[in-house]
Design a protein that fits this description.
CATH architecture of the largest domain: Alpha-Beta Barrel
Strand content: 25-35%
Bound molecules: 8-OXO-guanosine-5'-triphosphate, magnesium ion
GO molecular function, one term: 8-oxo-dGDP phosphatase activity
EC number: 3.6.1.55
Enzyme class: hydrolase
CATH class of the largest domain: Alpha Beta
CATH topology of the largest domain: TIM Barrel
Helix content: 25-40%
Domain Nudix hydrolase: 12-138
Catalytic activity: 8-oxo-dGTP + H2O = 8-oxo-dGMP + diphosphate + H(+); 8-oxo-GTP + H2O = 8-oxo-GMP + diphosphate + H(+)
Distance between the termini: 64 Å
Order of helices and strands: EEEEHEEEHEHEHEHEHEHEHEHE
Number of helices: 9
Strand order of the largest sheet: 8-9-10-11-12-13-14-15
Shape: elongated
């Protein structure tokens, strides 16, 4: 609710707040937009437009009180998604409501549903909500592996993978161009085993045949993305792409890819020749797409909150997520 008065963000976008409410079983509350409003029939996170003079949390508390009859005790920022619709631009500013008082009811005749997180993606939702669902259900840290040192013992590389997984990485893009086919295949099998063991997801960069053989994901460099006319793997296997501009993002979305990695956001040691996008341009790209994005380029786990504020579901990094020192082999530890 909220009538016609609403607050515009500094760049002219409509500021919308929405809440993620969970029940004791971890299910998440969705509300169905009623007939006669924009995006009628779509499922959404309850909320609405911020009014002049309100803070985002005051607006969220008011909206959830009007729409559901509850009051917020505690809420934390989850992700803010800039999104361009045909008739307007919004920023969907989503909060995880840690605790609330009252029992949620559909006070505006809207249907409500408590959805298990793994079922969220099956509800038809507005485009701005897709990155929100990704932020709730997918990896926030995506490691892109550095090239193995020439001639180095592959075990050192694998121990570093283990350390990165132990530190919280749950998605790994194996990006290796310097090895011959047999060594790459052996390394990919070993990395996949480690990811499987830790419940992490592996995508291999550029190697479609290996992705099929190992039943893992595929990450497309932008040049390879541009050669495709259809999604290269079945729906169960994730496919992602590196994108640098709106056209590559459109293509990734048209091919129904699962996510894109966009950057470089900041200056990065591994690609010093590329000039950085900056967060403002990242948000501009975010606004025109609805697939989940990872921000990459000079970032680390400490940048996750900033990335989420600009609509990234997570950060991807080589150096930022790679253990600085190869951990010693277990056998040599005393
Ligand atoms: N509440 C909410 N709005 C969303 C979501 N996703 C999304 O694109 N929107 C868009 O954000 C805009 C504001 O939402 P709203 O219609 O709930 O605003 P409101 O409660 O103040 O009601 P109003 O229709 O009386 O102005 C709509 O254009 C809506 O389509 C979402 O998950 N939750
Ligand atoms: Mg509303």
């Amino acid at each position: 609710m909220g009538g016609d008065r609403h607050r515009l963000a500094a760049d002219g976008a409509i500021h919308v707040v929405a809440g993620v409410l969970s029940d004791a079983r971890g299910r998440i509350l969705l509300a169905r937009r009623t007939a006669g409003r924009d995006l009628a029939g779509a499922w959404e996170f309850p909320g609405g437009k911020v009014e002049p003079g309100e803070t985002p949390l005051q607006a969220l508390d008011r909206e959830l009180h009007e729409e559901l009859g509850i009051r917020i005790d505690r809420a934390e920022p989850l992700i803010a998604v800039p999104q361009a619709y045909p008739d307007k631009r919004i920023v969907l500013d989503v909060y995880r409501v840690g605790s609330f008082t009252g029992k949620a009811q559909g006070l505006e005749k809207q249907a409500l549903a408590w959805a298990p997180p793994d079922k969220l993606a099956t509800y038809p939702m507005p485009p701005a909500d897709r990155p929100v669902v990704a932020a709730l259900t997918q990896a926030s840290l995506c490691l892109v592996t550095p090239e193995p040192e020439p001639g180095a013992d592959p075990d050192v590389f694998l121990r570093q993978i283990d350390a990165a997984l132990a530190a919280g990485v749950t998605r790994v893009q194996l990006r290796v161009r310097s090895l011959d086919a047999a060594s790459l295949r052996a390394l990919a099998i070993a990395v996949k085993q480690r990811c499987d063991r830790q419940g992490a997801q592996m995508l291999i960069n550029g190697e479609m045949a290996l992705a099929l053989e190992l039943n893992c994901g595929l990450h497309l460099p932008a040049a390879q993305l541009r050669t495709l006319t259809a999604r290269p793997l079945p729906a169960g296997q994730p496919v992602a792409a590196s994108c640098h501009d709106a056209e590559e993002l459109r293509l990734a979305q048209a091919l129904d890819l699962d996510f894109a990695v966009v950057g470089p956001v900041a200056k990065t040691a591994t690609h010093p020749e590329q000039s950085p996008l900056g967060w403002r341009a990242f948000s501009g790209l975010r606004e025109g797409a609805s697939l989940p994005l990872y921000a990459i380029g000079g970032l680390g786990p400490a940048d996750l909150a900033t990335a989420r504020r600009h609509g990234a579901q997570g950060i991807a990094a080589i150096r930022g997520l790679w253990p600085a020192q190869p951990p010693r082999a277990a056998a040599r530890r005393r």
